[in-house]
Specification:
The chain is an all-alpha fold. The protein is built from 14 helices and two strands.
Length: 453
């Protein structure tokens, strides 16, 4: 028997945005200085290292990464609007998403290995050309191109998930900057990604507010950003990159990635995070509007991104060498996985009011904001830089396979309930917590049976 809900629109208090903004502001500008208090006299967000070339590199890379994230956000929002504008029904939308996931499953998996061989900088350039090609298809062919653009956008999203991080790490090592400064970059990537997605949402809403103004507006802006970024890369980083041969890369990948249990554990952890984020991005709307409840989604989604920004600022507080929590950083990462898994379990099996659901989803995104830079830091400890892209793209394969199964069985044939899908993602996160605990146990007791990790 269903719960009867009055047909009254639920609104979010404007104080929520101010509260999240204030928390992020205080968390960023009250950060611990780190271990090098005696040598570093600056406490600015961008000035926590005395090396000026590094500061220039960080600012340039964050600018490029933010522009790429805005492109991704514009592509996602305008693509969804195109489906609605052209009257695409639910089955056709799910079929397009499923085809995109299936298309990126083999190509996205091997794209990271190709990136390691040809260089992540060149793969970033390929990412820009993919976006330009997508927007050209939208502008020239319009409605018949939606299926093709779904395939290409899924591939571009797979490339985006590893190419910029791999490029940043390789360039950081090439320029000879300190490892501590590299770790600081990871939480900044998550912070700037979330804030750039907020910007892209606002821009897309403005551009597609009036359909008569033209559906090409978001496409033209994304193409312009891609061209500007490409020209900037050519001017700023125009040096050649050392390329690996296929045989040498295959041997190195087999020796350092395939044969190491720790890499498989870390890859499974990353896949669990990616799958849970994908599931939440698809199911949070039908979960909140269950039983005919009415809300304004454009006012709720910014709270999710703000929560992820806040979660990313927890990373330097916990993992800074000046923090008393530094030695137990992995324990807090395990706790973040457990909390995220439990939150999804509550959402899946326990009916809640809209306000409680929003708080639970915000808690989940805050945990993800902490988890993402933490996993990037762990990859630096376990994965050689020249193999980073291949490892990250390989970890996408189980997540894409599970997402494809969920879209077909639950979305197209409707054989799986939303609660089951959400609980499946929760189980994956709880298993990921066990994986992080296993890695921590192996580092603490290297003489035990898993010493080969």
């Amino acid at each position: 028997m269903g719960v009867v809900i009055e047909s009254e629109e639920w609104t979010l208090s404007p104080l929520s945005y101010g509260f999240l903004l204030l928390c992020c502001f205080l968390s960023v500008f009250l950060l611990p200085d780190g271990a090098d208090r005696s040598t570093s006299k600056s406490s600015s967000l961008f000035d926590n290292g005395p090396i000026m070339p590094f500061l220039s590199f960080r600012r340039s890379f964050l600018l490029l990464y933010s522009l790429a994230t805005v492109m991704q956000g514009l592509g996602s929002l305008s693509g969804g609007y195109n489906f609605v504008y052209f009257g695409t029904n639910r089955e056709e939308m799910v079929a397009a998403w499923s085809a995109g996931t299936a298309f990126s499953l083999p190509l996205g998996t091997f794209a990271g290995m190709i990136s390691d061989i040809i260089g992540p900088r060149r793969m970033c350039i390929i990412f820009y050309f993919l976006h330009i090609f997508i927007e050209v298809l939208k502008g020239v062919i319009m409605q018949p191109s939606m299926f093709m653009t779904s395939l290409l956008f899924a591939l571009a999203s797979s490339v985006f998930s590893f190419c910029f991080e791999s490029w940043m790490v390789n360039e950081h090592e090439k320029q000879g900057h300190r490892l501590r400064l590299l770790v600081d970059n990871f939480w900044l990537l998550t912070l700037f990604e979330s804030s750039s997605l907020l910007v892209s949402q606002g821009i897309a809403n403005l551009l597609i507010k009036d359909a008569n103004k033209g559906l090409l507006s978001p496409s033209l802006l994304a193409s312009l950003l891609a061209i500007i970024s490409f020209l900037y890369i050519r001017k700023k980083w125009n040096g050649g990159q050392q390329k690996s041969t296929f045989d040498s890369y295959r041997k190195s990948f087999a020796g350092h990635i395939v044969s190491k249990k720790s890499i498989w554990i870390l890859g499974w952890t990353q896949a669990s995070v990616q799958f849970s984020v994908s599931v939440v991005s698809v199911l949070w709307v039908p979960t909140i509007v269950a039983d005919g409840r009415e809300v304004q989604f454009s006012r709720i989604f910014p709270c999710f991104l703000g929560s992820r920004m806040l979660g990313s600022t927890f990373f330097p507080w916990i993992f800074s060498t000046a923090s008393p929590l530094h030695k137990d950083g992995d324990a807090y990462l395990t706790a973040a996985f457990v909390v995220a898994g439990m939150v999804l379990s509550i959402i899946a099996f326990d009916y809640q009011d809209i306000g409680v659901l929003v708080v639970l989803f915000c808690t989940f995104h805050a945990c993800i904001g902490l988890i993402l830079p933490s996993l990037a830091s762990l990859r630096t400890s376990y994965v050689p830089n020249e193999l980073r892209g291949g490892m990250m793209s390989l970890s996408q394969a189980p997540a894409n396979a599970a997402l494809f199964f969920v879209l077909i069985s639950g979305g197209y044939y409707r054989r799986l309930s939303n609660a089951f899908i959400m609980s499946f993602a929760a189980v994956g996160l709880l298993c990921a917590a066990g994986c992080i605990h296993a890695l921590r146990w192996c580092r603490k007791f290297p003489q035990q049976s898993w010493h080969e990790l």
